[in-house]
Q: What sequence folds into this?
């Protein structure tokens, strides 16, 4: 079996994703973008079972997959679903002293994740998750082509 593309081109995928996030969130540094994305992932995974989280992570590019599962304590009880405002507040409170995450962090991360994943695979995994999880990753765009995978 050949090496998976995402492993061979992990740096290229990560750079494209990070650039998308920085631009979408109007952030200046890679560190700021990483902090925001990590916080979004932490908030999302708190609302999943370990099995659901691993299914979700399986369709992410390799670096994002690693960030998603890093330091995940699956023994914590599942958090309740919340409205977008509450979720955004929770994202902004992750590492609060080092977090300059903007209000659009969830939407911007969702937009960038969709642009770096296989749309069919991503939607397939979301279809198996609770409706609140699907809503978390919903992105409104005028042109669906905007969300097409950019690194193939």
A:
């Amino acid at each position: 079996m050949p090496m998976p593309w995402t492993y061979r081109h992990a740096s290229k995928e990560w750079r494209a994703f990070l650039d998308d996030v920085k631009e979408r969130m109007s952030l200046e540094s890679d560190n700021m973008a990483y902090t925001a994305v990590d916080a979004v992932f932490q908030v999302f995974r708190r609302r999943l079972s370990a099995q659901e989280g691993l299914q979700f992570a399986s369709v992410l590019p390799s670096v994002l997959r690693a960030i998603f599962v890093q330091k995940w304590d699956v023994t914590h009880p599942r958090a309740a679903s919340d409205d977008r405002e509450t979720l955004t507040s929770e994202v902004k409170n992750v590492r609060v002293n080092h977090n300059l995450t903007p209000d659009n962090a969830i939407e911007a991360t969702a937009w960038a994740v969709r642009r770096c994943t296989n749309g069919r695979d991503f939607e397939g995994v979301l279809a198996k998750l609770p409706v609140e999880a699907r809503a978390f990753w919903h992105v409104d765009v005028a042109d669906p082509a905007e969300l097409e995978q950019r690194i193939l």
Remarks:
- The chain has nine helices and no strands.
- The first helix runs from residue 5 to 8.
- The radius of gyration is 15 Å.
- Residues 118 and 149 are 6 Å apart (CA to CA).
